[in-house]
Amino acid sequence: MIDKRLVPFSGLKKEPFSGSHQGMRYYLAGDDGKNSTTFTAYVYPEPWCFEETPDDQKESASFPLSEEGMDQAMAWLHERFETEKKRWTQASLDSMHTIAGKV
Q1: Most CB within 10 Å of its CB: which of 10, 16, 61, 80?
Q2: How many whole angstroms separate alpha carbon 10 and alpha carbon 30?
Q3: Other C-beta atoms within 10 Å of 32: how many?
Q4: DSSP string, 52-93
């Protein structure tokens, strides 16, 4: 799913990192700008960006801003995907209807 080597965790102090996997979007951001020692990972369904998705559709967990914390975050993301695979698959299918309906 998500390869932690592709996530610039030290860069989370400057910029958030986001992506998606089969209907599940994720967003990682440092908790205190350049002084961050922790970061928060969010998951939410497609199709909208983080800012446009209602808060009640987002789940989050915080982790230390370190290699170990990144390992924990990746495990959490994988667990959230597997636990709610039907939700993410449906979101992926629904997003095609949402986008097609707006064209």
Answers
A1: 80
A2: 9
A3: 11
A4: TS-GGG-EEEEEESSHHHHHHHHHHHHHHHHHTHHHHHHHHH
CB 88 within 8 A of CB 59: no
Place of tokens 């994720």: 26
∠ Cα 40 22 71 (to 5°): 35
Per-residue pLDDT of the chain (103 residues; tens, 9 = 90+): 777 777 877 788 899 999 999 999 999 999 988 888 999 999 999 999 999 999 999 999 999 999 999 999 999 999 999 999 999 999 988 876 655 444 4
Backbone angles phi, psi at 38, to 5 degrees: -135, 160
Question: Which residues fall within 8 angstroms of residue 90, CB to CB, at 6 or more apart?
Answer: 23
Q: Which amino acid is at 54?
A: P
Spatial distance between the Cα atoms of 33 and 103, rounded to a whole number of angstroms: 38
